[in-house]
Structures are given as C-alpha cells and as structure tokens.
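In response to a reviewer's request, we include the raw inputs and outputs for one of the modeled complexes. The two entities were modeled together in a single run.
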Amino acid sequence: MFITVAGVKKEVKDNLTVAQLVIDEKVETPQYVTVTINDEFVDSGSFESTVLKDGDIVEFLYFMGGGQ
Amino acid sequence: MAFTNEQIERYSRHIILKEVGAKGQKKLLDASILIIGAGGLGAPAAMYLAAAGVGTIGIADADEVDLSNLQRQIIHATKDVGKAKVLSAKETMEAMNPDVTVKTYRTFVTSENIMDLIKDYDFIIDGTDNFPAKFLINDACVMAKKPFSHAGIIRFQGQLMTYVPGKGPCYRCVFKNPPPKDAVPTCKQAGVIGAMGGVIGSLQAMEAVKYILGVGQLLTGYLLTYDALKMEFRKVKLPTKTDDCEVCGANPTITELIDYEQAECDGVGL
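The model returned the following structure tokens for the whole complex.
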C-alpha cells in the first residue's frame, strides 16, 4: 500500500503500525513525537495499536525547544 | 496623529503597499508587541518590529549578553558582552528608530509574573529556548486570550505556529506536555546555525505585523517547518478537532499556570 509521510508518498507493507513506521523513519526521540494521520492526532499511547491504511497521510511534529 | 515628513519618508516603502498604506502604518505605530527572550529568535524579531515602527515593544529576558550569543543574536554587539540583554536590545532598537518606545523587563517569565507582563500587549512573540517557558507562554496567552507566535530552532531546523484565540489549535493541543528534562536536546547541547534565528525570528515578526495590520493568512492551524539543509519549508496542517485540549479545549483541566521544572543544561531561563 501507499502512504504519504511528511509530504513524501511511499510504498509500505500492509498492516504497518505507527510504532513501526516511527522506527522505519528513524524518528529522533520517538517517545516525544506528535503524530497525525489525516489531520487527526494519534494518542501517544496507541502507536502500537494504530494500523495504517492505504492512502493515509502521516505527519511527525517534533519538539523544538531552542530559541535563544 | 499626522505623520511628520520624516515618518513619511521612513515608512514610505510600507505606505506605498496597498495592504499597509497610511492607515496600516498608523496601526503599527499604535501597536504594542511583547517579545519574550532577547536571543536568537527575539533579536531579529525585535529589530524588524522596531524598524517597522511598532510603537511599543516590550522585551523580557533575565540574561546578560555572553560572547557565545553573538554568533546569532544580532541585536547585541561585542561591546555589549556582560550587559543586560534587555538593555542592549533597547539601545539597538532605539538607535534604529526613535518612534519606538521600548519597555524592558529584566526577568524570567514565571506563573507569578506572566499574566501581568502580557496584559497590555496586542501580540506576544515567544523567543524562549526552553519547554517550561514555551508551555507557560502558551497557557497564559490562552487564558488571557492573547494571540502569540510560537517558534523553536535547533541545528539546521526551525518551526513556528501562530495562536489566535478562538482560531485553531494552541501549542499544547499539538505537544500536550513538556518532555522530561534533557529528553530533547536544546540549542546549547545540540547547536544551532546562526542564520536560523534570522529566518524564523523574522517570520515571527512577519506574523505579528500581519496580525496588527489584519491582512493575509496567519499560521493558525498550521505548523511551518524549515529544514535548512534540504532548503525545504513545509506548511503542515494541524488537526482541527481540539476540543479535548487540557487548556484551550471545551472542558479545560489546566486552569492555573504551571512552572515546569527547568532542564539544568538550559542554565538561566529565557
């Protein structure tokens, strides 16, 4: 199936979970990333149980603390 | 208030814009904007807002200028090392534009002082470098119904979003709670390329100016991300269903401001 991750369309295996996608995408500090699928937040406790579907649009939103 | 001849000349490139005009320039001169943090983000934001003729600019920071700041904090100069950042920032802004009244607050923002700090300002710019301050500014602005610009920068990356009361998600809608101390690297630990503050801080000034003028589309409901190595900007749409947000949702559970624990490596706050 195809999903779009951070604006890039890519082919992934069926039944991919958000937890596995976070690993595959080498997300830095994965326990603190905010994930949205099709403009809805994914609860941070449900990455393992959230299975992606064909056509899903996934975004990773990262903490960015600097400024000074 | 009529413009002086000097003001007509100074602001001529604004006044000629149909989105600004004399009316818009008057709005800027009558506006008040608070910048929290006189650092990498706050420096360019403050300078562009001063140059633009924002009539009252507040600047809050407890730090002194350090030599290691000068790689990116362009409002301060080598002669200012050791000086209070708010004083150094005020001197630069006043030298740029005598139309601007600069109010300085040599303090960290805390749950005790932030409501009083923001209450007289039309728009707030978050130029802080740590999560406790970013969540505090968000919650205070939600509670006080103040619009603000969030931004963060690290390494070759930056992000920003704009919160306007009643329009779109707040920072806490997206990020829920501060990460534990040291869980996410800070600029001090990870580094930041100097011009990143210039890019993102200038975008914060742009959002503030657009808000004051009432023109264009603000970054409400979006997170703008910038990756300098890929030279890529992305405007990421944020979820619209945020009823369950702990601070701006339908039934907020956070009704008092919280002073989260500061990461030790951040040193002093702002």
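As requested, we also summarize the result in words. Chain A has one domain: 2-61. The mean pLDDT of chain A is 94.
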